Amino acid sequence: MNSTNSRIAVAITVNGTAHELQVPARQTLAECVREELGLTGTHLGCEHGVCGACTVLVDGQAARSCLVLTVQADGATIETVESLANDDTLHAVQQAMVDNHGFQCAFCAPGFLMTIKALIDNQAVLTKATLREELSGNLCRCTGYASILAGAEAVLGLTGESNA
Amino acid sequence: MRETIVGPFAGKFVGHAVRRVEDPRLLTGEGRYVDDVQLSGMLHAAFVRSPHAHAHIRNIEVAAARRSPGVVDIITGAEMETLVHPFIGMLALKGLYDPRFYALSSKRVRHVGDPVAIVIAESRAQAEDAIELVEVSYETIEAVANASDALDSRKPPLWDNRSNVLFDFANTYGEVDAAFAGADRVISHQFKEQRVSNQPMETRGIVVEIDPKSSAITVHAATQSAHMLKWVLALLSDRASIPASIKTLAINRDRVTRFAKSAKAILTAKPELKEPSPMMPAMVKQFRAEPSRFVDLQRAMLGLLAKSDNDRPEVLARDIGGAFGTKGSASREDLAVYAAARKLGRSVKWIEDRNEHLMGGGHSRDEIVDISMAVRNDGTLLGMKVSLTLDQGAYPAFPFGGSMFSQIIRVMFPGPYRVPVMQFNGKVVATNKGTLVAYRGPWAVETFVRERMFDMVARELGITAAEVRLRNIVTMAELPTPMITGPMLDVRMSAHRTLVDAIAIADYDNWPAAQLAARANGKILGLGIATFCEAAPGPPDFFEHSIPGSGALAGIEPAKIVLEADGMVAVITQQVPHGQGHETTLAQVAADQLGIPIEAIRVRYGDTKITPFAMMGTGGSRSAAMAGGVVTFAARELKERIVDIAADLMEASREDIVIEAGNVHVAGVPARGITLADIAVEARRRDQNAAPGEAIRVAQEFDGGEGGWTQATHACWVEVDLETGQVAIPRYVVVEDCGEIINPAIVDGQIRGGIAQGIGQVLYEKITYDDAGQFQTGTFMDYLIPTACEIPDIEIHHIETPSEIEANYRGVGEGGMVVAPAALTNAIENALAHLGVRISEPYLPPSKILELAGVIQTARSTAR
Amino acid sequence: MKMRGFEYHRAATLDDALATLSEFGDDAKVLAGGQSLVPMMAMRLSSPAHLVDTGKLTTHDTITETDGMIAIGMRVTHAALEQSALIATAVPLAHAAAPHIGHRAIRNRGTVCGSIAHADPAAELPAVAVSLNAQLVVRSTRGERIVNAADFFHGYLTTALEPDELLTEVRFPKRGAIAGASVHEVSRRNGDFALVGVAVHLEFAKPSTKKGAAVIANAGIGLFGLGGIPIAAVEAQSLLVGNPTSDDLFAAAADAVMRNIDPMPDNHATAQYRRHVAGVLTRRALADATNQALAAS
Ligand SMILES: Cc1cc2nc3c(=O)[nH]c(=O)nc-3n(C[C@H](O)[C@H](O)[C@H](O)COP(=O)(O)OP(=O)(O)OC[C@H]3O[C@@H](n4cnc5c(N)ncnc54)[C@H](O)[C@@H]3O)c2cc1C
Ligand code: FES
Ligand code: FES
Fold it and tell me: Which of B702, B736, B758 is the last residue of a domain?
């Protein structure tokens, strides 16, 4: 297969650490963080962009890492679920999920956590109903979402109005 | 880092929403799911799969693929047959033909996705590149695309020139004809449930690790039962001939003696196994009809006997991303990957992708049920006739699949109602579809059909859906009473109470007026209710009523509990949690028994090297009752042993010793207490034979005691948009009784998660094959799992029937999923009833709603 | 689910991108946001030998106004479209469509031009382009040409673009003084591609004094989810223009929509369903757009 196995130079910063990598063109960012960098907290649930389990932040914005090629992320700053906690102190979104029993098997958790982190960082203005929309790109098969929504509402300070 | 759990208060943990022990690990990315296992030198597997529903394999050409970069080996079906034994169904039931099949298909493919070769390469991408270069020539055969094809004797047989009806059974309970003759009305209907799929967010996967030095095998797996997987792999791998095995045994006589010893130990512990199994006559018949079956089984058994310890794997299941039943089987792929790793002597990883998982990772439901109810005009049920056809696809799940589900469906059909007589006929058929596996209540069709049928009967008789249920449901005053199918409904079976409460909460009596008022304003609303009970785990003899002879193997839950040398307590369970939070709930149970903080306990699971043996693993809503029970009793025994030592050390009488928050002291003088670490030191001093790191070890088994039922009534409201066919769920109420609740947040999570799957089944999910058996739902854009926008808020009301029974815990894993399709479908029919709509199938996408309502014409769809 | 190998070209400049496209022609594909192309490659439904990544052409990520047209550069994402104040005021239909596209994480990466070039018949923006008769600016080493949206969509995932061409900009006409826009769609789940969708843009002649009798000066109706390409509901549009709004008029427009389409069935919805709901949504969207226009005027 011609030169398709050649490697391409990429410079990315992941969770604050700069990396200079040589990667195959067909490698996805998800494969890069999981296999190349050993950050297995990012999960692959579908590899075709629907489930959201692989969500990471690229330059501060949520992105599905199965739909980003590593080569496209050249020069970008990446945040994965591993960046959230500070030593033994959980990030507010993690703590809110612990407090609200957010997850069960937690395979979907990294995607939800990073999606919500982006909402916090970008100071999204939300209601309980629009929060559901914001989280609708992340599938969870275990919880029926109520506990995840409760955790997200807690950390985003959405209380009061009904959950229509 | 030890996780700290802030309990609501330090004294008692059971009954409180204690934060999960597993969360700090799982929410920081520290979880270890099977795909996270990375080993140096590890190879990757991918499967060549059939694009056809049904075909002969005429030739398979792999030379070009072998030359593809990174390819290490390609094993075709023919070679695989030299490496492994066939899967041999172990259920011996009268009227059942259980086909044998190999990990890979060599001569014939039976569904789209049927694996015909395994490619092993340096990377998964390279393995997939090579797959494209494997040339398989197929000669297609007419497909058996659905149950009606399977019942059509002109269609080609899938298995061994036999009928595609693999299992045919009939059970009669009471004088059915007389009851029907005496009825005011006999009301009949045919129901179907579409094929759906569990689809946990993590697919299946396995990493077979082979230690390059010792060649010891560790199987990292996403499995619901580590021991089951271990023994299936051990039994079916390394195919040797009978003479070869005998020769091995002659050289290694110790293996025979070892076996004899352990067999004797098992028979001493479980004398009931000495009784001839009720399965024996059917099994003998199977062998007589098919002597090669006997030879295959003996060959596998002898091979197992001849294996050295090193030739058997240990299974290690760590974090698992959900399963809902689909990881309760040992799959053909598991065995193929295992065999490939053994052949190559190298570690091999296979992580199923979503397309594979949708195609072949396990489907469920797919039944047709004809039912007749004989009733009096007041709604009293006099009897039922039920005829079930279950489409289990091509390859039966191993060890248990459709045939077993059909038996639980039969036993559970009466539910919590008085059913004076019942006729139950069943057929399990083979079609060119993927394997049917357990999915959250694999018997759920009984609830769907019965609860839908009650609504239809009510409409026919002009009474309300509540009335027909109240007239027939077993009241508390009648308990205990056996179901017509055998199992005893004990005094805690409170389905009646859940129904009465739900009717009150729903303000059911005022519903017709509210509905009419809304309709006058252009709003189409509906309310549906459904009631059920589930064996969670059911009475002790529940399995005997489903599959006579299976109880002895299924019934027992073991656990070990260890005071470790450092004063920590380890609870070691054969359960393999995959979202249920056992690390928290079992710790809660043990902590309360021992009087120690939850932080002092760690729950160990998933590792066959340390966990006690049982085949069941986690499934069947059994964990709370069975594991909660055995941990209660084992912890209590451990406490006795601790108190013995404490009494000696503190020169006090045993009765005066208390343990509070980990402090072991004489009642009233906590300041002079000692710790469990102190006890551990003394215990180790006394027991020189204690294992390294251990001070006191207790092992117990529990048969479930009185067992028991979980019961619930769901009430669901819908609003239907008659212009677009969209259904909204403005309110959903659950009233349920699962006994004493260990952790309410976890219980509620199980219920809500199940209901979400039930809503998914009705409004979004369908595994689709066309009439030629072509698979049409291979992506998450085709198979639709509900998102946060589609699942409503769910109100849960718990009731607990008081009981003297200890460890009065019952399962809640499945009920949500079992009841929701009935409640939601009943609500939709209620909303459309004024249009004369009757709903037979719980798959109601917007097109279907408008067709039912007569807004649009019904299209003859190309897909079923 | 791993894509086939390919040769990767990171375009440093527009000319660079065009040169590579011209060199490899049919064997090359543009990689924009990757939100449609990467999943297709992962499933090996598409396996270009060469990918030309436009990601570094950041000068093309602007939304600007010139000569009564709003020009959207090829690196503008759906998210940028959704958040643009200029779009909200000047191209309300594009603004209304944006939130319907997939989910936030997809909108963060997917591009407006990518969506139009990809030409998924169930996508929102191609229908918006058709509804507004957008101008599509197409470049290659051979030069630049402008294609009207009405001529751009040729069939399922096929457009007027030649293999060596790049869609560099889409230009939407700026709305008139009294205008309303509305996108109505039915999808199976939130964020899914539409089973049926209608994008309506209405312009009104002058402020009406009497409520509800405003006269429609210009109407654009784009339909999506109905078959091979996004559809302009030409007959319905001409029925509307020059007439005062009324329920009957909208019903007639809806009828015209239903009459003129030949929807495709799939596993998610039948053809009958799509036809019926196209009518329903046309009525709803027309009413919405009217209310919006009149409320604002
Ligand atoms: C789960 C999911 C849900 C989605 N839901 C929706 C939805 O509801 N509605 C919707 O509209 N879309 C949806 N999308 C698709 C999304 O909007 C894509 O972003 C868009 O269709 C393509 O834009 P892109 O920039 O990602 O293009 P790419 O994926 O990079 O490219 C798509 C195609 O267009 C070509 N192309 C791209 N840019 C150019 C250019 N400038 N010139 C010439 N050719 C070009 C490429 O070569 C390729 O063939 C969804 C995607 C996913 C994964
Ligand atoms: S793995 Fe990326 S969206 Fe599912
Ligand atoms: S917690 Fe299991 S998928 Fe979300």
Answer: B702
